[in-house]
Task: structure prediction
Amino acid sequence: MELTVGAVLEGKVKSITNFGAFIQLPENKTGMVHISEVSNTYVSDIRQHLTEGQDVKVMVINLDSGKINLSIKRLEPRPQRAPGRGNPRKEGGGPQRSAPTPPPAPKTADQLFEEKLKAFMSESDSKISSLRQYSDHRTRSRRR
Result:
């Protein structure tokens, strides 16, 4: 039987380590399920999820120089996240708005000028402060 990436196989847990479990596959081949590929939830102790001699269904995720990498979690359905957890921008869990806000009114010429003047002043202040730091550093180094 030729193994291919994506193949689903039945196997038996041969041994368990702190970093994963070795699975006995058909035709006396052995593959490994890394601890991160055991479950969709965080696994701190793999022995809480697997026991030696247990029959498991695994998916081949990588074949690399004779090593067979397997996954159990890729055969499980992905759990739905509860709303309101994690990043609110991604999941829509932020505050709910009752109605969309109207677009802002167009700015007048005076408001545009004031904004441009503020941006110019802050940029020039930044440039002046960096020049002062540079010149102060140079004068201090000459005095020594």
Notes: Residues 12 and 55 are 4 Å apart (CA to CA). The longest helix spans residues 109-143.
